[in-house]
Amino acid sequence: MNYSWAERLSGMEDPAIKNLLKTMQRPDVIALSAGSPAQSSFPVAELSAAFSAVLADQGASALQYGISEGYGPLRKWVASRVSRLGIQCEMENVLIGNGSQQVLDLIARILLNPGDYVAVESPTYLAALQIFKGYQARLLPIPMDQDGMLVDQLEAAIQTKRPKFIYVIPSFQNPTGICMSLERRRRLAELAARYEIPVIEDNPYGELRYEGEAIPAIKSLADSPWLMYAGTASKIIAPGLRLGWLVAHPEFIERVATAKQTSDVLSNSLTQRAVHRYVTDNDLDAHIETIINQYRLQRDVMLAAMKQHFPAGVKWQAPHGGMFLWVTLPDGMDASALLPLAVEQAKVSYVPGTPFYADNSGANTLRLNFSSPTPELIAEGIERLGKLLKSYMNG
Amino acid sequence: MNYSWAERLSGMEDPAIKNLLKTMQRPDVIALSAGSPAQSSFPVAELSAAFSAVLADQGASALQYGISEGYGPLRKWVASRVSRLGIQCEMENVLIGNGSQQVLDLIARILLNPGDYVAVESPTYLAALQIFKGYQARLLPIPMDQDGMLVDQLEAAIQTKRPKFIYVIPSFQNPTGICMSLERRRRLAELAARYEIPVIEDNPYGELRYEGEAIPAIKSLADSPWLMYAGTASKIIAPGLRLGWLVAHPEFIERVATAKQTSDVLSNSLTQRAVHRYVTDNDLDAHIETIINQYRLQRDVMLAAMKQHFPAGVKWQAPHGGMFLWVTLPDGMDASALLPLAVEQAKVSYVPGTPFYADNSGANTLRLNFSSPTPELIAEGIERLGKLLKSYMNG
């Protein structure tokens, strides 16, 4: 059909990702490509009780429209929950969205004009890149080392390109698993204040730490209107509930609420109430502890299998938390070119690294997921992938 | 704070609407300004049973991520449901969004470049105007008469301005209550095909008819890729569930799904399943019949009270369906200027007409809602408003 599309549409589209999603649905392929939490971890009975209790206690009022900022008691709970990360805030600092993905979309919507720069870690969450490109932003990829984004290079980029905001995933980053050091977090908070540029701290995985000491949130390091924090229920409760949150200055929240009002009025009233009920009636920390124990085991199974089956020259580092393991193949190898072989011959899938790079580099990198498959499938999938890599590298 | 906002933000903001929402929350004011369905009509027990049944039967899979197009069985149900409007389609023609508001937002996102024209009824749904202005569109308001949009004027506007799409609410329009005639619908479908311009048919109220014969949907009048149809569960089940749908050509649906993926990945998985379960296990038509009986009564109470209490010179027409009654005050009167008096003195609220007009005209018009307040409050509210109008017009 001869539809006349908006220019921004091309920025949102990535055929590689679309094909990938199709691959993941093939039942004969072991999906190490997932971005989803383990279904076995979802608190089904507790959520069922919470939905019933809300409808029994609040009745029809739980099904009516409400304000775009979200359900008050849930916003209060978020404010209290983030205080353990060192973030001091009130309900007025919180907005509820449909997952942190919508929070990022709304922020981009109220900040970005076409051509604006956005500084991002390189590599970073591929859907965030799609969001920013959908608003016709130009991306400023900043390299990372094992302590996270290289903030000296960021400052140089700020001085020359003046990005509209800086987007980071400081804890157990997607895709690399890297945790930004406290010192880098401090520098980032300072840069935000000095240059008056928002830092968007996306933290879906921060509570999923399997070893080591917690590092404070960037937003906790300064009482600054330039520091914004996004969290989500997707990785600690369940993603199908589509609940995430933004913590920011009330003046910023007010404008995000305007965008939310225009976008879809409000997030699901009943689900907001049920999730509030769930966290009130249950021990979320104990639940997260069971997820941590499960994912730690799965990570260790993956690491052990990689050690056993991956050929020399393939490199990785053990992440201290999160859901992903980042793999670097020898120079000259192309993970995108290898993927069809992996899927068709080895019957195992992963995500090639390139879509995570704003500059389309990273051909020899790939992302593995250890949260979604069972330990048995992880071991089998890594063995299959190891065999493929060996035959490919020797061939 | 010195945040640097995107240019599009100013298009989304309307301080008048923000103030209005605050007014509606005052417990001492009778809100005839609502846009919400009657809370008493929500099927609380049935929905509670549906949520429980889905979690009992489908377990954790009901809480996982899913495809952006929506839950297959719900999409199939929508395809079957719209067939009674004469629309022939399959699951592939349907996408589930967070209410029809998000459907409109996603359509605007993939079609509109800044400066593009959008043809709209004058007046029309004020949030649609905010969405289109948020994408920096220019609006082409087309006047209406009692049969709906004046399609001759639309065709003239198409020839000179070539709008990107045409947005209409053909049945029991918000705010006027007008139902577009079959002949006008036919002309609109012809214009869409002739000029290859999408017509977005927004139909939240179509099933709420209190008298007269049903008129086929515009989309049913031609098997055309240029006709798009948006529906919602908000007015026939409950708005807090945030479920709406788009029916369109599969090529169009595919691009809307791309925008949905970027925007918030998917709509609430559990709610999609629960609503599907609700419509499967219950008689939705019988439920809608009870809503119709309730709203017809409330409309008639409002009409009777208006006849009794409104002064000569104030004009209105009885709508055959929907939730709204449109009032025209004598020339020279200003409903926006009168609103503070209504709220502070008479303790009754309405929506002034101006925000519904793309060209900010309509100063002497206002919208009343009869779905949300009880018959007692409607009678009392209209009496208060009538007294105020009398004293104001005599003063």
Plain-language structure description:
The structure is a homodimer. In chain A, about 45% of the residues lie in helices and about 15% in strands. By secondary structure, chain A is of the alpha/beta class. Chain A folds into 2 domains: about 10-40 and about 285-395, Alpha-Beta Complex (Aspartate Aminotransferase, domain 1), CATH 3.90.1150.10; about 65-280, Aspartate Aminotransferase, domain 2 (3-Layer(aba) Sandwich), CATH 3.40.640. In chain A, the strands form 3 sheets. The first copy, chain A, has an 8-stranded mixed beta sheet, with helices on both faces. In chain A, strands 10-11-14-13 form a 4-stranded antiparallel beta sheet. Chain A has a two-stranded parallel ribbon with strand order 1-12. In chain A, α3 packs across α10 (about 270-280), α11 packs parallel to α13 and α12 (about 335-345) packs across α13 (about 375-395). At the A-B interface, α3, α5, α6, α9 and α10 of A face α3, α5, α6, α9 and α10 of B.
Concise account of the structure shown:
Chain A is α/β, with parallel strands linked by helices. Helix content of chain A is 44%, strand content 14%. The first copy, chain A, has two domains: 9-42 and 286-394, Aspartate Aminotransferase, domain 1 (Alpha-Beta Complex), CATH 3.90.1150.10; 64-281, Aspartate Aminotransferase, domain 2, CATH 3.40.640.10.
How does the SSE layout of this entry go?
The structure is a homodimer of 395-residue chains.
Chain A: H1 9-12, H2 15-24, E1 30-31, H3 44-58, H4 72-81, E2 94-97, H5 99-111, E3 117-122, H6 126-134, E4 138-145, E5 148-149, H7 151-161, E6 165-168, H8 182-195, E7 199-202, E8 227-232, E9 244-247, H9 250-264, H10 269-281, H11 284-309, E10 315-316, E11 324-328, H12 335-346, E12 348-349, E13 351-352, E14 365-369, H13 375-394
Parallel strand pairs in A: 1-12, 3-4, 3-6, 6-7, 7-8
Antiparallel strand pairs in A: 2-9, 4-5, 8-9, 10-11, 11-14, 13-14
GO molecular function (chains A, B): pyridoxal phosphate binding; transaminase activity
GO biological process, one term (chains A, B): alpha-amino acid metabolic process
Domain Aminotransferase class I/classII large (chains A, B): 28-385
